[in-house]
Each structure stands twice: as C-alpha cells, then as structure tokens.
Amino acid sequence: MQSCILAVDIGASSGRHIVGTVQKGKLVLREVYRFENGVQRQNGHLCWDIEALAREVLNGLKAAHEAGYTPATVGIDTWAVDFVLLDKNGRRLGDAVAYRDERTEGVRDALAAAGLPFAEHYARTGIQYQPFNTAYQLAALKTEHPEQLAAAETFLMIPDYLNYLLCGVAANEYTNASTTALVGAQSKDWDDELIQKLGLPRKIFQKIFMPGTALGHFTQQVQAFVGFDAEVVLPATHDTGSAFLAVPARDDEAAYLSSGTWSLLGVENRHPITTPESCAANFTNEGGYNYRFRYLKNIMGLWMIQSIRRELGEATGTRPSFPELIAAAQGAADFASCVDPDDNRFLAPASMINEVKAACRDTNQPVPQTTGEVMQCVYNSLTQDYRRAVQELQALTGRTYTSLNIVGGGSQDNYLNQLTADATGLTVFAGPTEGTALGNLLVQMIRAGEFIDLAAARAAIRCSFAIREYKPKTKQEV
User: Fold this and answer.
1) Which residue in 161, 225, 238, 350 is deepest, having the highest Cβ count within 10 Å?
2) Are strands 45-48 and 39-42 parallel, antiparallel or unpaired?
3) Distance CA 359, CA 346 (A)
4) Which of 198-212, 240-254, 275-289, 335-349 has the weakest average pLDDT?
5) Taking a C-beta distance cutoff of 8 angstroms, is the pair 339, 377 a contact?
6) DSSP 171
7) What sign for the dihedral angle of Cα 347, 12, 163, 236?
8) How far is CA 464 from CA 28, 165, 409, 441, 467, in A?
9) Which of 293, 77, 265 is nearest to 183 (CA)?
10) In the structure, how many helices (H) and strands (E) does the chain have?
11) pLDDT, mean over the chain
12) Alpha carbon distance 385, 380 (integer Å)
C-alpha cells in the first residue's frame, strides 16, 4: 500500500477522488475515482442528492484503497452557499436545496423593507450580492418551513456535512462559512447581531475552524466499509478557496482566475475591502487560507458552455466534445454579438441556447443562428466580462496587474485563454488544470510537513506542472 494524501473534489456536475504524493520535490497526482453530480426537482425545488454524494465519497475511498493507496488524511471541498440542517439526533431535516433554485427570489428586497438594506449587509460581511446567498436561502426557508429551523440543532454546509458523516464531528470551516454572508469580515466569526436581525437561531451555527485543522478519524462504520482508517483534515472546503491556493503566481502583480462552472476573477488580500464603491461593483471578500481574503468577482463561467453541450446532446443523442464546440466557435470568430453572462436569466434557463438568442434579440444585436455563432457569442461575453472585472479590480485596489493566472478546467481551453489575453491586455498563464484538488492537497501536505509554507508549495507547483503562456495580440495580429 502506498501512503498518500487524498482530495475529494466535488463540483456541480461531477466529483473526483485524487491522491497526491511528493516525489523528488514534485507533486504527483492520480485520479482514482470519478462520479456524476447534478440537481433534480424534488418537493418543488431543485435539490442535490446529498445521500448519493455521501455514498460516492465512500465508494471513492474504497476504490482508492483497492487501487493500492492508503491515504493518511482526507480532505473534502465542494461549491459554496448550500447547506443542510440536522436535528438533535443528528438526522437531516429537509432537502439539500441547490443554489440555482428559485426560492430566494425577492428575498433581498424583503429584507431591505424589514430594515436590513444590502449596503449594511455588505459593510458587515463584505460578501457580494448573489440571489442564492446562504443568508437569503435561510430567510426563504424560515418563511416556507419554519418548523425545520425550529427543530434544527446544527447548520452544516455541504462539505461540513460530508465530513460529519465520515468522522462524526460537526464543525463549520472558515472559507465556506464566509460565503454565507453571515460571517463578519473583520471578526472572521459568526455575526451574532446580523443573525439576530435575520431571526435565525444562533445555536445552530458551529464553531468555525481554519483550513489545516484535523477533525478526527473515520468512524468504525466508515472504516469497515472503505477498508482503512484516515484522519479527516479541513482543506479550504470552498472549491474556489482551494483553487486560489494552487495559483503559481510569479509576483504580486498577478490576478487570479479560477475557471470552471463559475469564473472567479480576483486577487488575494490581507484585509477586506468593504467600501461603498466595492459594494456597488459587487466584489466579494471571501475568507481564504490563513485568513487571506479572496477579493473577486463571480462570473457565470463555463456553466453556459456546459449547458449548451448538454442541450445539444439531448437533442441529438450524442454530446459534442469540448474541442468540437471550440472548433465551431473558431469557425464563427467574426460573430460579434455579446450578452451579459451575469444576468440571472442564464442561471437555470430551460434552454441556454434559446436564452442566448433571446438576450441578443432583446439588445438589438445579430441573433446567432448556428452552434458556432452561439458559442462565439458566449466566448465574447465571458472575455468582455473578464476585461471589465480586471478594470474594476484595478480601480478598487489601486494596483496595476500585469498578468492573469488561470487554473481549473477552463485553463485547458486554448481558444478562451487567447481571447482572454486579447480582451484584458494581460499576459495569461494557464494551468494547472486540477487547481481545486491541488489546493485541497496542498493544505493537507503543509499540515503533514511536506512543505514548510504556502510559498514553498506554490514553488513546487511551478516545477511540477506545465504552465502555458498567452501574450495579448494586437488588432493587426488578430
């Protein structure tokens, strides 16, 4: 059996179990298990099949053991904002409702009318407005199912819950807790006054722990199923928090872009920025490793492309590959229409293709007719959003950035990377691809003494993975 560290990295469409080792100063990763994820309509809401996710976590741990790996520690990261509630016996109350559900519509306005304007909320937490913020989800739950909150003893975000099932310890991890819009930007702890204003029970929120904390070992039941014991260690359980850790930035003038279902573009700061200007620009201050702040802008990201691919597959019976979609866009490179990818109309449309067409029609632009034109419109839209975000970032921080480091699955898209360089005017460094899982592993490895600190870990990334460079082209070159 080979000793290793294991990251369970779960996204909106799939999850992976990736083992990591350090060999001769270089990081070596191997995917040992992969599974599907997605939302389904249940009891009138879009929900995650949380128990299926829990089973897949166990199945992947068992598969790792059967493949000859014995992880010393295991860390889980997922998306942010979503949660479950447990009763006094540790049983789950209600469904794990997904952030794309419509239950939070109108909640922001209702809270403002009740005496909590968003400007005050932002000044306290530094968390941007998103219609699915956890605070809004809890407010919606309070209206629809007050009995669930009345019976609740424990609030756990999705990775917190999966950790609880592995080791029996109920705890909230800092990077994910910060995304709830219930944690004070300055205090870095639950904002009791804000929780009281929202009428939520304070007792359900657990002690907040930092990445690198060991929660405990597998329960006897888990050990019996997977065939070994390991310690559950908190990484940055918010996937963006882990992805930012894996950015092999060369200097302080580098901006970061975690490119996946969502595009998260920003920088790391030592202190939050909660000014009215930052609020107006809707930049967020998410908690990061070692109390860094991920100061960033949420952009819809590859969700639009993933949705188009899925829709075409349902229509034809065969999903086109990403290279095929990229080639189609390149064939329509002169198509210039552009939409706002952050418009809520693209959050969960019945047809992403029709929604893109409708948005072009609504703004009096040429309407895409072919798959290539739809794809090129999405690429135009994403890269122009990146350009605006970089400009806002520079204005808000008072700094000038000279490069953009892209990590995550989107870093494999050479066409998007070059268009991003052209649109932003910044040199783009793309890679590594497994940014989120890698950041998850780094926290565990630092705790295990494989690296003395994050700087040493990032140096190892630069010598372990191919980083591709894209220079911005002039109009003449294009």
Assistant:
1) 238
2) antiparallel
3) 10
4) 240-254
5) yes
6) -
7) negative
8) 8, 34, 17, 14, 9
9) 293
10) 18, 21
11) 95
12) 9
pLDDT at 476 over 60: no
Beta strand pairing call for 154-157 and 96-97: unpaired
Cis peptide before 211 (omega within 30 of 0): no
9: Cβ contacts below 8 Å, ≥ 6 apart: 15, 16, 17, 18, 77, 239, 242, 434, 436, 437, 440
**Burial grade of 466 (CB within 10 A; 0-12, 13-18, 19 or more):** exposed
Q: What is the dihedral of CA 11, 14, 15, 19, to 10 degrees?
A: -110
Tokens 């109309």, located at residue:
345
Q: What is the pLDDT of residue 477?
A: 57
Cβ neighbours, 10 Å, residue 194: 19
Q: Is 90 exceeded by the pLDDT of residue 478?
A: no
- CA 390/CA 421 separation, integer angstroms: 11
What's residue 1's pLDDT?
57
- Beta pairing partners, 84: 156
Handedness of CA 229, 232, 238, 240 (dihedral sign): negative
Judging by beta carbons within 10 Å of its beta carbon (0-12, 13-18, 19+), is residue 82 exposed, middle or buried?
buried
Full strand arrangement of the beta sheet holding 214-217: 26-36, 14-23, 2-10, 69-77, 231-233, 214-217
Give the single-character DSSP code of 470.
E
- Angstrom distance (rounded) from CA 407 to CA 433: 6
d(CA 207, CA 172): 6
CA–CA dist 353, 467 (Å, integer): 33
Structure tokens at 128: 């941007």
* Owner of token pair 């050990």: 223
Amino acid at 228: F
Q: What are phi and psi of 468, to 5 degrees?
A: -90, 145
Question: Cα(214)–Cα(195) distance, rounded to whole angstroms?
Answer: 28
- Residue 322 CA to residue 379 CA, distance in Å, equals 13
Q: What share of the chain is helix, strand, coil (3-state, %, to 5)?
A: 45, 25, 35
Alpha helices in 115-207 (DSSP H): 118-125, 134-144, 146-151, 158-167, 174-177, 192-197
| Active centre residues (catalytic) | 239
Amino acid at 66: E
Q: Pairing state of beta strands 45-48 and 69-77?
A: unpaired
Whether the model clears a pTM of 0.70, i.e. scores above it, the answer is yes
Rounded to whole angstroms, how far apart are CA atoms 43 and 45?
6
User: Which residues, listed in sequence order, are joined to residue 26 by a DSSP beta bridge?
Assistant: 23
Provide the strand spans (E) within 110-188.
154-157, 172-173
User: By the 8 A CB rule, do 83 and 241 touch?
Assistant: no
- Tokens 């783009």 correspond to what residue? 428
Spatial separation of the C-alpha atoms in residues 59 and 187, rounded to whole Å: 39
The conformation of residue 218, written as its DSSP 8-state character, comes to P
